[in-house]
Amino acid sequence: MTEHYTDDLDNQDVMAAHAEEAGLTDDDLARITDDETTVTLRLVEPITFKASKLEPERTIEELVIPKGVKGKHLVAMDKAEGEMGKTLALIAALARIPVHAARELDGRDVDLALYAILPFLPKLRGTGKR
């Protein structure tokens, strides 16, 4: 498996389990590159979209995702319906592409994006008695 961008052993265990569960191969993981502030995912298939009616058509071959999920990214999920809709809304917000463009992503790219985002998502807080 490729080297991850985290030294946290527990997080690496979670990442390895997610990669295995998603069926990600070493070739899939090789499509991820990272630097200090972003993670870049090379897409299996480029996507072409118009951000708005007034803008020209645009084709992208990679998603650039910040290494940090902010409230504004999470709030984007509130506007979407369904689990997959929320997932695509989060990916779109992080990659700064329209949600309708994220809907054109290959399923393998969605899985890889989720894998890349996982270390930066807030940890779920337990509820109930402490």
Overview of the molecule:
- Helices cover 42% and strands 18% of the residues.
- The protein is of the alpha+beta class.
- The protein has one domain.
- Strands 1-2-3 form a 3-stranded antiparallel beta sheet.
- A hairpin with a 3-residue loop joins strand 1 and strand 2 (38-49).
- It is globular.
- The chain starts with 8 loop residues before the first helix and ends in a 13-residue tail after the last helix.
- 20% of the residues are buried.
Keywords:
130 residues; alpha+beta; three-stranded antiparallel β-sheet; Phage tail assembly protein
The residue-averaged pLDDT reads 85
Low-confidence stretches: 1-9
Task: Assign the structural class, choosing from mainly alpha, mainly beta, alpha/beta, alpha+beta, or little secondary structure.
Answer: alpha+beta
Spatial extent as radius of gyration? 15 Å
As laid out across the biggest beta sheet, the strand order is 1-2-3
- State the assembly state of the protein chains: single chain
Question: Helical amount among residues, as a percent range?
Answer: 40-55%
Largest sheet: 3 strands, antiparallel
Number of domains: 1
The end-to-end distance, rounded to whole angstroms, is 37 Å
Topology order in helix (H) and strand (E) letters: HHEEEHHHH
The total beta strand count reads 3
Global morphology? globular
Total of helices: 6
Strand content: 15-25%
Organism: Marinobacter halodurans
Protein name: Phage tail assembly protein
